[in-house]
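Dataset card, provenance and construction

Sequences and ligand SMILES were collected as paired inputs. For each pair, a complete structure of the chain with the small molecule in place was predicted and serialized as structure tokens. The example below shows a pair involving adenosine-5'-triphosphate. Curators did not alter the output after generation; any descriptive sentences attached to a record were derived from the structure itself.
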Amino acid sequence: MAFLWGNIGAGMASIMFVYTIFKDHIPQSLSTYLEKYAKKLVRFLSPYIEITFHEFNGESYYGRSEVFTAIQTYLSSKASTRASRFKADFMMKSKSLMLSMDDYEEVPDVFNGVKVWWVLEAKVLQARNRGYNQDSMEKRYFKLSFHKHYRELIAGSYIDHVMKEGKAVTVKNRQRKLYSNNPCKDGYYWKAWSHVYFEHPATFDTLAMESKKKEEIMNDLKKFSEAKEYYAKIGKPWKRGYLLYGPPGTGKSTMIAAMANFLNYDVYDLELTTVKNNRELRNLLIETSSKSVIVIEDIDCSLDLTGQRKKKSKKKKDEEENDESENESTSSKVTLSGLLNFIDGLWSASGGERIIVFTTNHVEKLDPALIRRGRMDKHIEMSYCGFESFKVLAKNYLDIDSHELFAEVGSLLAETNMTPADVAENIMPKSDEEDTESCLKNLIEALIEKARKKAEEEARLKAEKEEKEKKKCAHDDTNAAGSMKENGCSTLYYVS
Ligand SMILES: Nc1ncnc2c1ncn2[C@@H]1O[C@H](COP(=O)(O)OP(=O)(O)OP(=O)(O)O)[C@@H](O)[C@H]1O
């Protein structure tokens, strides 16, 4: 068989050699025709099979194929020993170089004694307007070749093996990312998200919050991350919504970082004000990866989302519907109903786990439809610093568990509203000379000052209220006297 294929190969090589010599003398149309059929003939006679795995499925340039990513990761672990040309990337997490296979470089692999060959190829396509300035487009794919004889083994067990190994390596090497929705160019592609490596140090240990509340949140997150089968069973997308609300500086952003670190998820920071319309929002969300926290901070300020449902006119409804239509040049913005649709239904198809977090300083301003249970499953109030939270901050910043000044701090915190951000600022040593005691004294001073200002403010408000009431009484008396006069009374009668 090998001899026969060898002879056919030699014959084909001679024909190709002669063809190359005379190619310039053959008309263009005939030469294209010959090349096409020569390729078909070679494929027909070849004892080898080729399977291709495309980076993006179908027409869509959103949502990279998970199979392609797993193969890429699997091969990068092989490329370092089996290829002769590599692409090198510096891994922040492991502080080491990661080698991956270069374009058109062949990487052989052996499975159960059977040899296969991988190569990364690309087709360059005509430019098409897909919402960003696209010059031209490259469609990359992996090509796997193996002998026909091993069709079942390779198409079944081997591909499974590659997927499993690829995913395992991805989890091991995972460098988490913080994405923001600023389009950026990556090779031939415009990507809707740009990223930096996510290295926020916050954890639930360093988060200032009552331990019972923290534990409840951690249990909730853990249960969610392990509930793949449960979500599949009840037929719901594997997602969970959190609403974090509270005054500025109470740790909403810190909580998001702690959640992402706890789950080992990426973070997508979605700035809604820069999203043109519902279509763009959909594309952005489709492009988010599994195991991610999608954050919309200050949802009340993000867009005119609040109360829009109630007030929506017929005209507005029509605009929203047009927004979903083919017209990409529309200037309409993301709407509440658009956002609700994506939260409810978007990820049912993609299947991966996602957490969506809204933060707000003014929970009372939000449309109830946006935060109802089922959409935002857990509402977490981020509050002013209590004694338990203070102790976490004291441990973080001063490395102490107790101190004789703690009792005074505790009673002052009970009377005053100070955010964890302000507490942290006050106890942070400002120079090498500042010791623990002087840091705590700084905080006590700040708390006393805050309590004094609060008392002053309360006194001012009380005086203002009394003044208003006095004026109102005088005004009522004048009106009463006036109406009596109108009714022909000359004397005022007071009824007690
Ligand atoms: N609960 C907390 N635990 C630990 N540190 C906190 C906490 N709250 C605030 N901080 C500290 O204060 C800084 C600001 O807090 P953060 O940005 O998380 O507050 P926020 O509620 O998100 O504020 P904003 O509403 O203004 O965005 C943080 O960098 C952190 O150092």
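Derived descriptions for this record:
The chain has three domains: 1-46, 48-175, 190-323+332-381.
The first strand starts at residue 48 and ends at 54.
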